[in-house]
């Protein structure tokens, strides 16, 4: 910390209690100056030789036959006047970053200029400010902090502006040229990673955001002005600006929701959030993480920030929603919403994100046709991340008993099919919702289960679904059927890999897809005719599965086997009547009994199924 000593005489200003100061000398004092609650008993001559204002005031009181002067609204108070008085007497005075602004404002008030005496106090303080304070990083910040209590003097004297310009200029310095001390506690650093001002060694790797912690101590109004100046210079990366805003928000915004909305500081937090939003880098949200933006939005909602701030945050978040986590999206709902979390807000973010994605895809299609570029690949990956995010989010909010079915379905359908190649996450969300909402009707259960494609479930999810009593019977049968089709196709497709040209494989794929659709339609028709009571009396699904020793395929639970046996028996007659119209194969799915699957020399692709 820089300092400057003025004068050489010993300090002769004594105190008589808390409210009286006097100069101890052989001459009696002849003027009393009252500043605030403190009276200064001084001599006229030293004061009049340095201050134009005191000359006029003394002349006025002499005319009134008085010896007392009252200085109302004196900048800096009694302490600042004491510095000026000691300077007039030539006593030793020490100026430092904590008192220099008050002394400068007091000297301006007393008009201690060069026209009355060369080398007066204003001149000496300006030399100290320009040669030492404004050249020091931390001293500039300390001085700037002291200016708030001295408004409007500090503003009129341009001390605030000069401090801000000094700080902003230093933040733009190449990190490799930094030789002054700074604070950096966010990462594990060795003690010698912070360079002292007296050291000639330089930091090997000074981080670009080395300065953000030091300015966090500034009041929000001063902080805003510093950041605006930093941004106006155009040398600071948006990522560093975003990091600075994040550190400031962490420093001043409380973690407690109750403290945020308390009446004592609610207005302050509202102003803080609105200011941070205004300072966000104008780079479409690139400079700030999505997690930080979502937390800022959460606070903005709680403190009821203005609509423009929330809209700006929503816009930035929608551009990078793929970077968010489920925890970030769990924003508490506000009255009059009945749900635990603000589902409508997340729905709006999703809609906005998908709209941006659609516009981007249309642009790529027009500009770069028949070309696969890095940007399109990134879009695909981002879309997959959003799909996982949505499934995770609806899985969390499904525990809310007040979550409506319409909201659940709307969220699930907010993303395209390509964003959800795997339906395990959606299945888990549906299962939780069915568990937490046991009062759903059959039609509502069919609607919510219709969101899920059982063919896109993994083996583990299919096994769980096959034993899930909360699912409609139709869904369970579909799961069982497609698992058996997959299990039967694996060994037979392996046997037929070397055989057949590529066009035969293509025809086989089309035939298999057509047959699966016909088979599923037939199963649905048969399930509608089965009595649920007859099926349910067979007990719960057996959770233990075994493997077929011949084919290696997974056997069905006992209840599922009985269901399948009944279905195949019902359709057996129809299958046999149609078998003559096929290629004469005896290996139709009607003859494949669970637990007795046999490998065949012909591939599943080359079969014609007898189930319509």
From TrEMBL:
Segments forming domain BTB: 29-97
Disordered: annotated segments: 493-515, 539-558, 569-612
Pfam family of the protein (one): BTB
Domain of life: Eukaryota
Domain NPH3 as annotated: residue spans: 209-486
Keywords associated with the record: Ubl conjugation pathway
Cell compartments where the protein resides: Endomembrane system
Signal peptide: none
Record's compositionally biased regions (Low complexity): 580-591
Its membrane topology: Peripheral membrane protein
GO cellular component, one term: endomembrane system
Pathway: Protein modification; protein ubiquitination
Family note: Belongs to the NPH3 family.
Name of the protein this chain belongs to: BTB/POZ domain-containing protein NPY1
Lineage, uppermost ranks: Eukaryota, Viridiplantae, Streptophyta, Embryophyta, Tracheophyta
Name of the gene this protein is made from: LOC107495555
């Amino acid at each position: 910390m820089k300092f400057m000593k003025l004068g050489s005489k010993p300090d002769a200003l004594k105190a008589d209690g808390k409210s009286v100061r006097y100069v101890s000398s052989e001459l009696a004092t002849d003027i009393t100056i009252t500043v605030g609650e403190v009276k200064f008993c001084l001599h006229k001559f030293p004061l009049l030789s340095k201050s134009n204002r005191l000359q006029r005031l003394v002349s006025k009181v002499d005319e009134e036959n008085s010896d007392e002067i009252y200085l109302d609204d004196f900048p800096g108070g009694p302490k600042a006047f004491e510095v000026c008085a000691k300077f007039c007497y030539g006593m030793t005075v020490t100026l430092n970053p904590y008192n220099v602004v008050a002394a400068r404002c007091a000297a301006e008030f007393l008009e201690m200029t060069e026209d009355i005496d060369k080398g007066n106090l204003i001149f000496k303080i300006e030399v100290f400010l320009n040669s030492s304070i404004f050249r020091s990083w931390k001293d500039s910040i300390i001085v700037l902090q002291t200016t708030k209590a001295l408004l409007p003097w500090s503003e009129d004297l341009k001390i605030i502006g000069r401090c801000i310009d000094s700080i902003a200029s230093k933040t733009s310095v190449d990190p490799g040229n930094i030789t002054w001390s700074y604070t950096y506690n966010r990462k594990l650093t060795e003690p010698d990673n912070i360079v002292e001002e007296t050291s000639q060694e330089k930091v090997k790797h000074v981080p670009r955001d080395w300065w953000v912690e030091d300015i966090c101590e500034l009041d929000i109004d001063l902080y805003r002005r510093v950041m605006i100046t930093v941004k106006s210079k155009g040398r600071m990366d948006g990522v560093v600006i975003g990091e600075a805003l994040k550190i400031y928000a962490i420093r001043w915004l409380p973690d407690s929701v109750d403290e945020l909305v308390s009446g004592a500081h609610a207005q302050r937090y509202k102003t803080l959030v609105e200011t941070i939003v205004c300072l966000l880098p104008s780079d479409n949200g690139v400079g700030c993480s999505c997690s930080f933006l979502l937390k800022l939005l959460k606070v903005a909602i709680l403190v009821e920030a203005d609509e423009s701030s929330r809209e700006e945050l929503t816009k930035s978040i929608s551009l990078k929603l793929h970077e968010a986590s489920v925890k970030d999206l769990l924003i508490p709902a506000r009255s009059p919403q009945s749900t635990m979390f603000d589902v409508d807000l997340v729905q709006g973010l999703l809609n906005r994100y998908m709209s941006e994605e659609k516009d981007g895809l249309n642009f790529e299609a027009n500009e770069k046709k028949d070309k696969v570029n890095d940007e399109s690949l990134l879009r695909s990956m981002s879309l997959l991340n959003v799909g996982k995010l949505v499934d995770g989010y609806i899985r969390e909010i499904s525990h809310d008993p007040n979550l409506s079915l319409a909201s659940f379905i709307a969220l699930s359908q907010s993303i395209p099919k390509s964003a959800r190649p795997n339906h395990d996450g959606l299945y888990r969300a549906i299962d939780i919702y069915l568990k937490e909402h046991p009062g759903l009707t059959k039609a509502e259960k069919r609607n919510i289960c219709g969101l899920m494609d059982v063919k896109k479930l993994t083996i583990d999810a299919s096994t769980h679904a096959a034993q899930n009593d909360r699912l409609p019977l139709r869904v369970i049968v579909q799961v069982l059927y497609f698992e058996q089709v997959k299990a039967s196709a694996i060994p037979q497709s392996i046997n037929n890999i070397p055989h057949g040209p590529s066009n035969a494989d293509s025809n086989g794929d089309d035939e298999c897809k057509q047959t699966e659709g016909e088979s599923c339609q037939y199963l649905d028709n048969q399930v509608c005719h089965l009595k649920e009571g007859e099926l349910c009396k067979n007990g719960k699904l057996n959770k233990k599965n075994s493997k077929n020793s011949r084919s290696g395929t997974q056997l069905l639970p006992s209840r599922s086997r009985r269901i399948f046996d009944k279905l195949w028996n019902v359709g057996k007659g129809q299958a046999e009547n149609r078998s003559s119209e096929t290629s004469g194969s005896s290996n139709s799915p009607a003859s494949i009994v669970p637990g007795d699957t046999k490998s065949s020399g012909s591939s599943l692709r080359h079969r014609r199924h007898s189930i319509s």
